[in-house]
Amino acid sequence: MKNGWSVREVSGAAKWCTGRLKNAAAKAVHPDIRRLNETLTETLGVNAEVKKRQRAQSAESSSTFDTPETLDALLQRLGVEFR
Hints:
Elements: H1 7-27, H2 31-44, E1 47-52, E2 59-64, H3 68-78
Antiparallel strand pairs: 1-2
């Protein structure tokens, strides 16, 4: 092929680029979801993340607590008695 590339090299490079584009698109977060994540994080005082599921009309939420005290503080604010 021109410029010294074999057909396999061109095919491999094309697959690599296409795969990277698909991964980037899959990792992209909708602006509404990004705003929701920011609002939850600020309001709850913890790292909160909402992820929309690809094939379902549902979402998944997770929160990360840096310390047990952070979790206790949130539970207290929510009026939840855990112990």
